[in-house]
Each structure stands twice: as C-alpha cells, then as structure tokens.
Design brief:
- By secondary structure, the protein is an alpha/beta fold.
- Helix content is about 30%, strand content about 25%.
- It contains 6 helices and 11 strands.
- The protein is globular and about 60 Å long.
C-alpha cells in the first residue's frame, strides 16, 4: 500500500482548492465568450478543442448548460473552500467517474470526514421522494403527475462512494480512511428547484441546529437547498472534530 512516506516524488493530488477553481473560472470565461453549438466544443479552432476544453468536455453536460454548471461549481466550491481553508479542507471539483456523471464536489477533511456533493437543478419544480419505491420524482408546479428523475442522483452518490474505495490511491488515502471515515452524500438542489414540503416527518433528521431531509437509496443521502450548503458542512464537520 502506498503511504505518504513512500509516495513518488512526482505524485500530485487531483486538481483541487484555488488552482482548480481558477481553471473553472478560465473555462467558464472561455465558454461564455464562444458561440458553443450543441454537440460541438471545437468551434473556431479548426476542429481542435481549446486547451480548457478538457474541463468543459469532462463535465459530460450538454454544451448549452456548461457555462451555468461551471458557475454553480465555482460558487459553491469556493464558498466551501474559503469557509474551511484554515481547517485543511480539500475541495476537488469535477472528478471523472466511469459510466457516470462526474463528482461535482468531493470535499475531504483528511482523516476526519468526507462529503460527496451533487449539484442538481430541475427548474421551477418540486422534488418528491416515493418512499415505497425508494425513487426520486419530479413534479411540475403547474401540472399534475410525477416523473421519475433519471439518472437518479441518489444512486450516483452511492456509486461515488464505491468509486472512492477503488481509487483511494489517487488521494494517497489508506484503506482505513477510505472505508471508515464518516461520509456524507449530499444532493444540493439549486433554486428554483426545491424539495416538496410534504415529506413525512420520519424522513428528517437533525444535524446540529439544522433539520435535514434524508432519503434512502443504496444508502442514505442528505437533500438540502443550495443556500444551506456551507452551514450543513459546518454542522456535519462539528460532529467529528
């Protein structure tokens, strides 16, 4: 097993903290100044992807929403980094995961706790949890009926945890830290998307001073609005420090 003591001299963690968010800002600026055609990221480059295109392409999102997605990643990621920088936080954005959407934010407090954060939006709609089927559904405000949320972000979050166990060497992480460290899987709903207020009381738990919706699908995941993310991280971290 590779350890900090015997790590290779050229070992580098995946891009994280301020250097990562600087790259996101550059990619966001580039994307916003280009007329990105749906299905093409190489416009005006003679078929060659811009040097920053690796980040845009790696996000695996439709070109029309790339700039918006990058802005959300930058806003949320930098707010977490700045809030907990003095506590040694490592914030890794857009970690690629095979056969899955990238991990939006992997937040690591080494040897203390980890958080996987997925940032999702469904427009001006409410999210409803069907407890008997353990599925998320989307409800339009102006229409009746519910539609399954595919791919299910709860399943993705569970897969991210498995991915970390298999890829812990990327972070020079021991098997004990990867498997035993308290981990929170968090679905962040970006406004105007929000969770339905009609979920049953037993689906909520208290983390510090916060009352949080907890949903089960291949494990448990917390569901919070974007505005409460930093406060949630603060309360979660307080449990283990």
């Amino acid at each position: 097993m590779t350890t900090v003591k015997d790590r290779p001299s050229n070992f580098q963690l995946p891009l994280h903290n301020e250097p990562a968010f600087r790259k996101i800002r550059e990619a966001k600026d580039y994307a916003s100044t280009q007329a990105l055609a749906a299905g093409s990221l190489a416009m005006g480059t003679g078929g060659v992807i811009h040097p920053l295109g690796w980040l845009i392409f790696g996000l695996a999102y439709k070109p029309l929403v790339v700039t918006q997605k990058l802005a959300r990643l930058e806003k949320l990621g930098t707010s977490i980094f700045h809030e907990f920088e003095n506590q040694g936080v490592q914030v890794f954005p857009t970690l690629p995961v095979e056969n899955n959407n990238p991990i939006d934010l992997f937040v690591r407090f080494p040897q203390t706790t980890h958080l996987f954060i997925s940032i999702r939006s469904k427009g001006d709609r409410e999210i409803v949890y069907n407890e008997s089927r353990e599925v998320l559904q989307v409800k339009r405000k102006d229409k009746n009926g519910l539609k399954l949320w595919k791919p299910c972000p709860l399943i993705e979050l569970a897969d991210y945890e498995k991915w970390l166990n298999k890829n812990r060497d990327k972070f020079l992480m021991s098997s004990r830290e990867a498997q035993k460290t308290p981990t929170a899987k968090v679905l962040v709903l970006w406004p105007p998307t929000k969770a339905s207020p009609n979920h049953k009381e037993h689906l909520y738990t208290e983390i510090g001073s916060m009352k949080i919706l907890v949903l089960r699908r291949k494990g448990s995941a917390f569901v919070i609005p974007e505005s409460e993310t930093t406060e949630f991280v603060k309360n979660w971290l307080a449990k283990y420090t």
